[in-house]
Each structure stands twice: as structure tokens, then as C-alpha cells.
Write a structure and sequence with these properties.
The protein has 263 residues and is α/β, with parallel strands linked by helices. It has eight helices and seven strands, in the order βαβαβαβαβαβαααβ.
């Protein structure tokens, strides 16, 4: 299937590892031009080099902290100066710290707000005008299945990701007439470094020995395993494509069957 992404410009945030990295690689395989963002400039440079050498596409690193409004604005301006446009924005960010209600304070809430909600709002605000002018754009937010079914011990993520879902739904209706589509992907448990650390913390183990915690977790996943980052990236890729031209305002759950509700 031709996804119609060859030559399109995709900006992927938090692209240095996990789902973000897999998404950048997926766009490169489709022949898109790829702008990658994360805080670690050295890791990001290596990824951009890999995209160029392995897939023969234009790819550049644009380091920056998504919780800093000035850095977000400067990062997007640099991407637009380099590529001339952003056709696809993938709003991705590392999750806020785990913890129950009693374990998080006002500073934790504020950091989670900036990281989880405002990073997506600000990056979208910076790219959206040129998408609307050109009457073509795709905005895909990477969230969590917790927007449909809360996950124990990650109160901040459960709370703020619902904010992203509501914002994205509202925005989708506002910009649909300009052929800008806004969707949210809600992954389940995925084999990333962050998930490995979370599972180890649950079991009181070192990350290298988190096997018991993982085994207990997957018993509750109908498919019986964690997702691989590339499986989430493939769904993001489709929603970013020409083939998804009538899909907007949706929350797409990619969780191996964990969420049992009908909606």
C-alpha cells in the first residue's frame, strides 16, 4: 500500500528512543523527510545519521526541551527554515513520574502539565498555521490506553493524558475544514526502557531482572505479550498518511486487547 508519504516532512518529538525512535524510522522507510527532536543532542544526531544512511532520506536533528516554550518555538522555526514545511507532527513525550495521589505534590503536577499537555499544545500551535494555509496536515498525539481505563500508580499520566484527548478532539473539529486531521494513538504496555524501569520498580528488582513483573503483567493482556515500539509506529504512520484521509478526532487504542469497553 502506498501511504503517500514520500517527500512529506514529518516532525517527531521525543524521538531518541522507544516509540518516538521507531516512528522516525517508520517515516524514513516510507521516504518521508524526517525532523527528530529530543533533549539529548548526541543521541539525536546518531539517529538522524542512521535515517540518512540507512534509508537515503533527508533527516535532521533538532534538539530541545519540550517543557520550555522558547525552545519549542525555536525548534519548530528551525525545522521550518530547513525543510520549508511540516506536513506531519507526531506529538510524543516521555510520561510523567509514577505515583499515587499521596505521593505527588504541586511541583509534580506542574511538571506533568508542562510535559504531557502543554508540550503538545505549544508544538501544535507552532506548526498549525502553515498546515492550514497549505490545506494539508496530520497531527498525531501519542498517549496511552489509560485515557479509557486508568492504570494503577500513574495518577499524573492518567489525569493529564485525558486533557490531551479532550484538547485533540476539540481541535480536530476546529481545523477539519482546512484538511488538517488530528488523531490520538493510545498504546498499551510497550517494550520501552521506561516500561522496563516501571516494571522493575513494581517488583523491587533491577531493570535487568524485571522478568517476573513482566510475566505478571502480560497475563492480563489478551495477546499475551508487550507491544513492540514498531507496532505502535505503524498505526501512527497510517494515521499520518493519505490513506487516512477521512479519519479525524479519533482515539485509536493499540493495547493488545486490554481495554474491554466497547468505546
Amino acid at each position: 500500500m502506498d501511504l503517500g508519504l514520500r517527500g512529506r516532512v514529518a516532525l517527531v518529538t521525543a524521538a531518541s528512543q522507544g516509540i518516538g525512535r521507531a516512528t522516525a524510522l517508520a517515516f524514513a522507510r516510507e521516504g518521508a523527510k524526517v525532523a527528530v527532536n529530543a533533549r539529548d543532542a548526541a543521541v539525536l544526531d546518531r539517529l538522524a545519521t542512521l535515517l540518512r544512511t540507512q534509508h537515503g532520506v533527508e533527516a535532521e536533528a533538532f534538539p530541545g526541551d519540550l517543557t520550555d516554550p522558547a525552545q519549542v518555538e525555536a525548534m519548530v522555526a528551525a525545522v521550518l527554515a530547513r525543510f520549508g514545511a511540516v506536513d506531519v507532527l507526531v506529538n510524543n513525550a516521555g510520561g510523567p513520574r509514577p505515583g499515587s495521589f499521596a505521593e505527588v505534590d504541586d511541583a509534580d503536577w506542574q511538571r506533568a502539565f508542562e510535559l504531557t499537555l502543554m508540550s503538545a499544545v505549544r508544538t501544535t500551535r507552532a506548526v498549525l498555521p502553515q498546515m492550514r494555509r497549505r490545506r494539508w496536515g496530520r497531527i498525531v498525539n501519542v498517549s496511552s490506553y489509560s485515557v479509557k481505563q486508568p492504570i494503577p500508580d500513574i495518577l499524573l499520566s492518567n489525569s493529564l493524558r485525558l486533557g490531551v484527548a479532550g484538547w485533540a478532539k476539540t481541535l480536530a473539529a476546529e481545523v477539519a475544514a482546512d484538511n488538517v486531521l488530528v488523531n490520538t494513538v493510545c498504546p498499551g504496555w510497550t517494550r520501552t526502557d521506561r516500561v522496563t524501569r516501571m516494571l522493575a520498580a513494581r517488583a523491587g528488582e533491577a531493570p535487568a531482572g524485571a522478568g517476573a513483573a513482566e510475566a505478571a503483567l502480560v497475563r492480563g493482556i489478551p495477546l499475551g505479550r508487550l507491544a513492540e515500539p514498531g507496532e505502535i509506529a505503524d498505526v501512527i504512520l497510517f494515521l499520518s498518511s493519505e490513506r487516512a484521509s477521512y479519519v479525524t478526532g479519533t482515539l485509536v487504542t493499540v493495547d493488545g486487547g486490554v481495554v474491554q469497553s466497547a468505546t
